[in-house]
Prior knowledge:
With 148 residues, the chain is mostly helical. It has 6 helices and no strands.
Amino acid sequence: MALWFAMGLLIPAMLSIGNVYRSVAWPFGVKPMILASGTLLASAATLGLFAGLTRTSIFPETTGLQLVSIVGIQGLLTALTYLCAFELQRRSNPVFYSQLGAVAAMFGLLIGVIWFKEHYSVSIWLGALVVILGLRISNRTKRTSPET
Length: 148
C-alpha cells in the first residue's frame, strides 16, 4: 500500500514539473500546431514501431468501415485536444495550466450525475468542494487599492 500511496503522491508532482518545464523550455517562435502535430506524430511512430516489433496488428482483420470511422473521428478529436492544450499552455502559466485536471474532474462528476445517473457519497462531494475552493483561492484577482 505504501508504494501505491507514494506513486499517487508523485503523479501531481511529476505533472507540475512537466508543466513548468514546458513553459520554460517552449521553443522560441514555434506555434502550438507544430508542437501538437509533432507530439502526435511521435506517438504514432512509437505505436507503429512497437506494433511492428511485437508483430501486433493495429486493427483486427475483421475491422469494418464503422470502426475505422470511429477511430478517425477519435483521432481528429485527440488532435484538436492537443492543439487546444498547447495553445492554452502558450497563453497561460504553469499553475493555471496544471489546474485543468481538477476542472476536468469536476466536469466528470457532473457528467456522471447528469448523463449516467451516478450517485456519489458525501465524501466525494466534500472533496469536490475543497477542489473548487482551492481553484477559487489560487485564481483570485489581486485587489488594487482605490486611488485617493
